[in-house]
Amino acid sequence: MRTQMRTQMRTAFYVIVGVVILAAIVVIACCRKPQPTQTSMLATPHPYDCADRAVNLNQIHPNLYLGNVATAKAAQGNFDSVVCVAYGDTCSASTVDDTYVDATFPDMLDIDESDFIERVSKAAEFINQALEDGKRVLVHCHAGINRSVSSIVAYAALRAKAKASSTIDYVRRMNDDHRNLPAVSNPAFEQYLVRRWG
Questions:
Q1: How many alpha carbons fall within 13 Å on the CB side of residue 104?
Q2: How far apart are the C-alpha atoms of 103 and 18, rounded to whole Å?
Q3: Which 8-state DSSP code applies to residue 131?
């Protein structure tokens, strides 16, 4: 009887430990390399929703962050300036006064190259001025994958003289590590950036 009870208790213990380990693996798989300063920027109440996290792109500039529309909704108090390059009402999400808005920026494969370069260059100028003024800057589009990253790549190319291809690689790693998302998945955007800035 005692042996059977010990076996049942041991089995229950192993099941509980297994569930805890499995839960930890799921959390780690979703939110690799969490940054304590970023937890206040989660825009949704679910603690494992990494897509809404702001990513600090400190190798480009220590005050430069990438996010999405949900990150922008939580921007008040976390950022001094917001850059929104999106389409439609996505840019109405931010409550920060110092905001650059290009609310007619489509995320499509057939956008004209000169129009694209002009748009990301204008956003890059605003990013540059805000960073020179010592502000913490969030750059976002709807998902934080194409238009916002393209604007950041333009900033890095224009101000830091970085190659577009190496900046894209860096932001892809950061977006994947911190948000489990790609970056510059639109092949036309990548082609335009690399053709213009290497």
A1: 3
A2: 48
A3: H
Straight-line distance from the first to the last Cα atom of the chain, in angstroms, rounded to the nearest whole number: 75
Instruction: Looking at the structure, tell me whether residues 82 and 132 fall in a common domain.
Output: yes
d(CA 40, CA 65): 14
Encoded amino acid at 37, one letter: T
* Contact status, residue 100 vs residue 155, Cβ threshold 8 Å: no
Considering the entire predicted model, what is its pTM? 0.75
Q: How many domains does the chain have?
A: 2
Measured at the CA of 132, the angle between CA 130 and CA 135, to 5 degrees, comes to 45
Q: What is the pLDDT of residues 70-109, one digit of tens each?
A: 999 888 889 999 999 998 888 888 888 888 998 888 877 7
CA dist 122 and 102 (Å) reads: 9
